[in-house]
TrEMBL record:
It comes from Limosilactobacillus pontis. InterPro entries: Cation/H_exchanger_CPA1, Cation/H_exchanger_TM. Keywords: Cell membrane, Ion transport, Membrane, Sodium, Sodium transport, Transmembrane, Transmembrane helix, Transport. The chain crosses the membrane at residues 27-50, 85-108, 114-132, 180-203, 215-235, 241-258, 270-295, 307-328, 348-371, 383-404. It is a multi-pass membrane protein. It comes from the Bacteria. It is found in: Cell membrane. Pfam families: Na_H_Exchanger (PF00999). Residues 14-404 form the Cation/H+ exchanger transmembrane domain. This is Sodium:proton antiporter. Its main location: membrane. Gene3D superfamilies: 6.10.140.1330.
Amino acid sequence: MDLLLGVILLLTTVVVANIIHLIYPKIPLSIYQIVAGVLLASLPTATTNFTMHPELFMMVIIAPLMFNDGQNQSFHYLSRNFRSILSIAVALALVTVIIAGTVLHLALPQTFPFALAFMLAAIITPTDAVAVKSITSSMSVPENVDGALEYESLFNDASGIVLLDLALAAYQSGDFSIGYGLWIFVYVFFGGIIFGAILGSLLIKLRIELMRSHVDIGSIVIPINVMTPIVIYWLAEELHFSGILAVVAAGVVHSILYNRLQLTSTKVQIATTTTWSIISDALNGLVFVLLGVLLPQVLKRTSLANLGRLFIISLVLYLIMTVMRYCWVRFKLVKIDSHRNQLNRDSILMAIGGIHGTITLSLAFSLPVMINHHAFAFRNSMIMIAAIVILISLLVGAIVYPILLPAKTQSYTPAEFRQQLIATVQYALNQLRSQTKHSPEQAVVIDQLSTQMNQYHQFNQQRYNQLMNRAHKVEMQTLDRLNEENTITDREANFYAQFVSHAILRNNQHGLLEYFQLLWHRLKWHRFRRNHLHHHLVANPQLAVDPQQPLLAVKQQRQAILKVLKVVTKNVENYLQSIENTTNANEVALVRRVYLQQVQLFSRGQDLDADVITGLFIEAFQWEHSFVQEQLASGQLSQELANALNEKISTDELVYAQSLD
C-alpha cells in the first residue's frame, strides 16, 4: 500500500510541476520537477522515503525511455552518420573518462585511486537529450546540433554503463587487464546491439503475421510494444550484454517498421505513438522528481565542510567534460556538418549541450552498498557529486542557451490561428447549408462541426446571454406571425408558448422587458386557447369523458410543439447565420445547439440516417481543406499556418472516422 501511495504521489508531483511549467515556461521543466521532488520529500510522511533499486529503475524506467528514443530515430539518418555516432558516443566518452579520471586521481591520489576515479568519470559521462529539450523547447536549435546531441545521448549511455562496470570490476579485484577490458567492452557493446536488433526483428515479424491474420488491433499490438523494452533489457542483461544498447537497437529496428507501414494500420500507429508519448513524458518526469526526492537523503549524510569540497570536485569535472566536448567538435574529431563560419558557435552549443540526467542518476544509485564484504564508503559522496554535476549542467544550459539561441518564432500567432480556424469552419458550414436541404441530419453535422472551434475560443457568458435573448425574440415574433397567418391553431400556439416560456424562465439573465413581453404573449395565447377549447368541447361533448383523451392530448401536444419548433428553429438559424462572425462563433454554436436539442427532444422515435450524416461530414472536411488551400494560393495564409490548419482538420477527421467503428 505504501508503494502504491508513493507512486501516486510521484505522478501527482510530476503533473503539478508540468502545470506550473505551462504557466511560467521560462524556467526549464526539469528544474521545476527537481524542486517539486525536494518539496515532496519534505512532507511529514514515511511514504516519501523512497529507496532506489538500480536494477528495477533501469529496467522499468530507463529501458522504456531508451526504446522510445530508438523508435523515434531514422535508420537512414543513423546509418549515414554511423562514424560520427561512434566518434561522439564511444570515442569521446572513452577519452573523457580517461582524462577526467586521470586528472581526478592526480589531484586527489589518496582519495581517488585510478579505478575509483574512472568509476566516477563513467557515471557523469552520459548525456540526456530530454533534459536538453526541456531547456531548448522554446528556442531555435540548429538541426545539425540538435541531431548530434540526440544520437549522442542515445548511445553514450551504454558507453558509460560498460565503462562503469569495467572500473567497478577493477576496483573490486584490484587488477585490470587492458586486453580483457577491451574484449568485455566489445562483447557487451556490440553484443547488446546485435541481440536487440535480432529480437526487434523477430517482434516485427510477429506483428506482420498478426496483420496478415487480421489481428492488428490495439489491444494486442500496443501491450506487446510497451512490454518489449522490459523483456529485451532483462534477457540482454541475463546474457551479460548491454541491456540499454539492446533496447535502443530494438527501438531503431521498430522505427524501420513504422517507416514501411506508412499509411497501413494508421489507427494503431497513432494510438501507439500517443501511448509512448504519455509514457515517455511521465517516466522522464519521474526521474527528475526522484532526483529531487533523494537529494535531501544524500545531503543528510554529507557534512557541510565535505559538501563544499564535493561541489568543487563536481565543478572541476563538469569543466573538464565541457572543454573536452568543445575541443572534440571544434577540431573536427566528429563531423556534425557545421558551416565554417558557424563551427565555433556549434562547438559551444555542443559543449553546453552535454547536460546530464536520467542515466547519470541511475548509475550513481547503482553503485553497490557493499564491496568485498565491506561498506562502500565513497558511495554517498559519488552520488552527491553526480547530483551536483546534473544540477550544474542544467543551470548552465538554462542560462547560456537563451543567450546563444534565438527564440522560436512562428509565422502566425495563436490568435491568428484561432481566427483562421473559425473562418475555415464557418466556410464549411455555409457550404453545407447552401448545398443540401435542411434536415435533422444536417443540423447534427453542423452542431458537431462547430465543436472544432471550442478549444481555441474563450467562452463569453454575457455574449451568450444576449444571443439567447435575441433568439427568444425571434421565437416569439415567429409564433405571432404563424398565429396571425393561421398557419398554426391557437391551441398549437399555446402549447408552444408553454414550452418556450419554461425555456426562457430557466435563463435567469433576462431583463425586466423580456419578462413583460413573455407575460403578454402568454396571456394572449392563453385567451385564444380558452376560446378555442370552449367551442371545440361544445361541438364534441364526447371528448370530455373519453379515457384515452389524456394520452391523445399528450401526443397531439408533442406533435404541435414539433411542428412549430421546426419553423422557429429555421428562422433562428437564419438569424444566427446573419450575425455570426469569428468573434461570436462559439456562442452562436452553443445557442444553435440549444435549439437542436429541443428538436431532438420532440423528435424521439425518428431515426437519423447514419449514411447521410457520414456523407455530410466527409463533404464538410473536404470543404475545410479546400478553403485552406484557396487561402494559401491567394496569399492570405502562410505555409506554416496552412499546415497547422490542415493538421487540425485531418486530426478531427481521423477522430470522426474512428468514432464510426
